[in-house]
Amino acid sequence: MVMGKALFLIWVLFFPAVMVMAQHWDSDGDGIADSTDGCPYVAGPAQYNGCPGIPVDLPAPAPVYFAIGQSGLDEAARRHLDRLSRIALADTTIYVYLYGHTDNTGNAAVNMALSLRRAAQCRQYLIDKGLSAYRVMAKGMGEEAPPADNNTAAGRRQNRCVVPGLKKMKK
């Protein structure tokens, strides 16, 4: 019982400090916190928002869609990600940003976790296809920034997706 109280006390004392450290974590060591770094896995100067060059948006590929409550990739999603990987593998200055979304049915916290799992699944698939991990960023958006209207069944279906973005780094 004493051990349990001691662990609880340690948790209460140190958890806030860990959370503050996580907000200021800098994976690439460029002095810009991951939470605001445009390229959190590769170092770059502050003038380029932590990216190795000036990020230039490229035309966005179509979203990758998912079934309700699912984060697994079906055959259509894999074909879509295969095309995306070929684009990124052909030019090492292209970085891929994956924004996971959900519809607004269910619990917001569950939807946030689901959106991150969707983006992470796509990220891992691209890495498995040969992209360097530092060139593929995944972020869960939950139900907060839907690409379509959540007030209709068609809109909710469109919101169960990962929206890829491509940025080319110009020096």
| Tally of strands | 5
Distance between the termini: 60 Å
Portion in beta strands: 15-25%
Give, in order, the helices and strands: HEEHEHEHE
Low-pLDDT windows of residues: 15-22
Number of helices: 4
Basic shape: globular
Percent of residues in helices: 25-40%
What structural class is derived from the secondary structure elements? Answer: alpha+beta
Biggest sheet record: 5 strands, mixed
Average pLDDT over all residues: 85
Radius of gyration: 18 Å
Describe, in short, the structure shown:
This protein has 171 residues and is of the alpha+beta class.
Descriptive report:
- The protein is built from 4 helices and 5 strands.
- It is 38% helix and 16% strand.
- With 171 residues, the chain is of the alpha+beta class.
- It has helices at 2-23, 75-89, 108-128, 153-159, and strands at residues 54-57, 64-65, 94-100, 136-140, 161-170.
- Helix 3 (108-128) links the parallel strand 3 and strand 4.
Pick out its properties.
alpha+beta, 4 helices, globular, 171 residues
Write the topology of this structure:
Elements: H1 2-23, E1 54-57, E2 64-65, H2 75-89, E3 94-100, H3 108-128, E4 136-140, H4 153-159, E5 161-170
Parallel strand pairs: 3-4
Antiparallel strand pairs: 1-5, 2-5, 3-5
